[in-house]
Automatic annotation (TrEMBL):
GO molecular function, one term: glutamine synthetase activity
Reaction equation(s) it catalyzes: L-glutamate + NH4(+) + ATP = L-glutamine + ADP + phosphate + H(+)
Name assigned to this protein: Glutamine synthetase
Gene Ontology annotations of biological process type: glutamine biosynthetic process
Source organism (scientific name): Tridacna squamosa (Fluted giant clam)
Broad class of the protein's primary localization: cytoplasm
Gene3D superfamilies: Glutamine synthetase, N-terminal domain, Glutamine synthetase/guanido kinase, catalytic domain, Nucleoside diphosphate kinase-like domain
UniProt similarity note: Belongs to the glutamine synthetase family.
Segments of this protein annotated with the region Disordered: 38-103
Lineage, uppermost ranks: Eukaryota, Metazoa, Spiralia, Lophotrochozoa, Mollusca
Length: 774
């Protein structure tokens, strides 16, 4: 491919290889080849020399238009011309009349353009204080590919009932991108929600924010929604006032024939308003809205469109955008769209927003039982739900036309007069979904889906949390210094004699521990404080500072100010010794004299003339990673009522110092029988024979680290997820024992949960998560 063609992005003639060199880091080879085929051949330069013999058409011949590509009107037939794929071009090389994609450059980028002809229009859409749809347009330098490509915009909140005039700026945060079916490609519509500029809190009537929190809390249930939006086309009345006469009602003010033929009807004077419904359907499809159908409804001029299935928060986003598109469509059809629950008085149906809903437990085998269970839960909070289902809904839910009376709750299979309809197919197959028929046409989809998910989540989570609190599962291992067959036998007999069930056991070699950094993850907080974190980054509670002063005779603030506090790595350098030598000095310190505990995995010891944080760690790590060593683990479980976690650690295992462990505990026996057990030295506080998890939560973290346990398959893990604690928070934050805000201060998460039984541990985890909600 040595011939040259014109790159439409730059206007320059290039060879195929030159095109590849330009775009190889941006586009795939196949895309570049397609682009090359769509490029026009470059015009051949005139030469005085005789043309060489050619075996194929010259560049000049190639560029000659094909007569067959002429249409009758003399214009080229577009079909005969290869269609260029979206040009693989670098934004910086594009001319102003080409559409860029990616992040918006903002005002500074706009100022450098020769013209805005290649720019993109973005229609930001949001809800005001009264739930009314608002929008305004922005010129952008590029077509966004993802939400983060868009900028946070602002508007005058005092004009939308969301701010005062003296402090009126409200922010628009982009949440979803749709194609703009009115202006066409490459323009977009942006679904946004409103936030106060002064405190970055959700603005008045930003119902999306709390809905998103609930959806995130119960996302493991994977909620699906489908909303049937009924609406009524009305004759325009006075500007600014709500219209009162539906489209299709007689001009003389008399009512049309009773309802009956209009539902799913066709024909003049029956399917009144079809052009509006059809155009709306088409534009929603072009926009990318998840619209799944339409039909004429019971009253003249009344229609319905269905949105979904949508997952979680996108239900509200797609319905809000579908409503906005409807409002735009009616602008040119000389009618007004009403979402009023009772648009016409008398013997006429109202307009609802029937909400179809399911979660994973409903969609799997046996899910019908879950549907019934959730329906029962809905009945217990019927009034709370009705309060979220739209204004003036009482005028619609009279029990005379559709759905039962607003003060009555009932559910039934294939019963459209019930509050909740369960499809016949769901009963037949034993799985499926349920339909809440109570929401009114004017309901806020975020409020509706939020309370539906909240009630369902609480109902189903209660059982999961209860199950997670009934069993204790711990991780126990024999440390390298004590790992031999005699100790393994002793530990196993002790565990089983106390009624604990051993689920799994085995050896983990030092090479694996070192390669997979299992011990570093295990002692994550300890390791971080010893190596990566600086003393200034650590939080020492006021009570611990008082104990420090009492023990060492100097204020914590003073030694920090004087630069006398170091982590283990820096402390060794300061003293001019190795990490192992520091570890030996640290191990020689006596608790209550030379060393103090500030919290879980957080120690401070005085070594020579400086204070060292977790100076024992490097020496401790080497014990687990030394060649030829290993640990032997036991994964054990038992019913909560058989043994409290505090007894498991305090009586069965024994305290950290084996010399003070109670008679019969594992650490006491290994300590007192060390010689008979074949150990090289008597155990001490560092080498105390055996380790066991300090809480059900810590046990889960340890099993995930050492045994690659699955949180979503573990009873306690499922209890945590059901408590609304996101999986990423557990794996990326909590398993590392962070300092969390709780009860007036920063505290170690592991310390807060230490020795709690499973149910109490789950409850406290939920409280801590709520206190640290971002």
């Amino acid at each position: 491919m040595s011939d040259k063609r014109v790159d439409p992005a730059t206007g320059e003639a290039v060879t195929y290889n030159e095109l590849v060199t330009t775009y190889k880091k941006t586009y795939k080879r196949r895309e570049i080849e397609e682009y090359w085929e769509a490029c026009k051949p470059a015009r051949a330069k005139k030469s005085k020399a005789a043309p060489a013999k050619e075996s194929k058409p010259s560049a000049k011949a190639k560029s000659k238009p094909d007569p067959k590509a002429k249409a009758k009107d003399g214009k080229k037939d577009e079909k005969a011309k290869p269609k260029a794929k979206a040009a693989p071009t670098k934004p910086e090389t594009k001319t102003d009349d080409k559409v860029r994609t990616g992040k918006d450059g903002g005002a500074s980028a706009l100022a450098k353009l020769r013209s805005f002809s290649g720019c993109v229009l973005a229609e930001y859409v949001w809800l005001d204080a009264d739930g009314v749809t608002r929008s305004k347009t922005m010129t952008m330098t590029a077509r966004p590919l993802k939400v983060t490509d868009l900028k946070v915009w602002n508007y005058d909140g005092s004009s939308t009932g969301q701010a005062d005039g003296h402090n009126s700026e409200v922010l628009l945060k982009p949440r979803a991108i749709f194609n703009d079916p009115f202006r066409g490609y490459p323009n977009v519509m942006v679904l946004a929600d409103a936030w106060n500029a002064w405190d970055d809190q959700p603005a008045k009537n930003n119902t999306r924010a709390p809905c998103a929190e609930i959806m995130d809390m119960y996302r493991s249930l994977d909620p699906w929604f489908g909303i049937e939006q009924e609406y009524t086309l009305m004759k325009p009345g006075k500007v600014g006032l709500k219209p009162t006469v539906p489209l299709g009602f007689n001009a003389d003010g008399s009512e049309p024939a009773p309802q009956g033929p209009y539902y799913t009807g066709a024909g003049f004077n029956v399917a009144i308003g079809r052009p509006v419904a059809d155009e709306h359907y088409k534009l929603c499809m072009e926009a990318g809205v998840k619209i799944s159908g339409i039909n004429a409804e019971v009253m003249p001029g009344q229609w319905e469109f269905q949105i979904g299935p949508c997952r979680g928060i996108e239900m509200g986003d797609h319905l809000t955008m579908a409503r906005y598109i409807m409002l735009r469509v009616t602008e040119k059809h000389d009618c007004v769209c009403s979402f009023e629950p009772k648009p016409a008085k008398g013997d006429w149906n109202g307009a609802g927003c029937h909400t179809n809903f399911s979660v994973t437990p409903m969609r799997v085998a046996g899910g019908y039982d879950t549907i019934i269970k959730v329906c029962e839960a809905f009945g217990k909070v019927a009034k709370e739900h009705i309060a979220e289902y739209g204004e003036d809904n009482d005028k619609r839910l009279t029990g005379k036309h559709e759905t039962c009376d607003i003060n009555t709750f009932k559910y039934g299979v294939a019963n459209r007069g019930a509050s909740i309809r369960i499809p016949r197919e769901a009963e037949k197959s034993g799985r499926g979904y349920m339909e809440d028929r109570r929401p009114g046409a004017n309901c806020d989809p975020y409020r509706v889906t939020k309370i539906i998910m909240k009630t369902t989540g609480e109902c189903l989570s209660a059982e999961t949390i209860e199950a997670g609190g009934k069993t204790h599962t711990a991780f126990v291992f024999i440390k390298p210094h004590a790992n031999n067959e005699k100790v393994q036998t002793l530990v196993k007999e002790k565990l089983t004699s106390e009624g604990l069930t051993i689920k799994s056991e085995g050896t983990i070699k030092s090479t694996v521990i070192d390669k997979k950094k299992l011990i570093d993850t295990h002692y994550g907080a300890i390791a971080a404080k010893a190596v990566t974190m600086k003393p200034k980054d650590l939080t020492v509670q006021e009570k611990s500072q008082e104990e420090f002063e009492k023990q060492f005779g100097v204020k914590w603030s003073k030694v920090m100010e004087d630069g006398l506090v170091f982590n283990a790595m820096d402390g060794a350098k300061k003293l001019g010794i190795t990490a192992d030598e520091l570890g030996k000095k640290y191990d020689a310190l006596k608790k209550g004299e030379g060393i103090i505990k500030f919290g879980g995995g957080f120690y401070c010891g005085k070594v020579d003339d400086i204070y060292v944080i977790n100076g024992f760690y490097m020496n401790m790590r080497s014990k687990f990673t030394a060649p030829g060593t290993s640990i032997y683990y036991y994964e054990v479980e038992w019913p909560v009522e058989k043994m409290p976690w505090a007894d498991f650690r305090g009586k069965l295992l024994g305290p950290t110092d084996p010399a003070s462990a109670p008679e019969g505990s594992l650490r006491q026996q290994i300590y007192s029988k060390w010689s008979d057990l074949g150990l090289k030295a008597q155990p001490d506080t560092g080498d105390n024979g055996v380790h066991a998890s300090a809480s059900p939560f810590e046990a889960l973290a340890e099993r995930c680290n050492w045994l690659r346990a699955s949180i979503s398959k573990d009873a306690f893990g499922k209890g945590l997820l059901a408590s609304g604690i996101p999986l990423p928070m557990l794996t990326k934050e909590w398993f590392n024992d962070p300092q969390v805000d709780f009860e007036g201060g920063k505290k170690s998460l592991f310390d807060l949960l230490e020795d709690l039984d499973a149910a109490a541990c789950l409850k406290k985890c939920k409280e801590i998560a709520a206190a640290n909600k971002k």
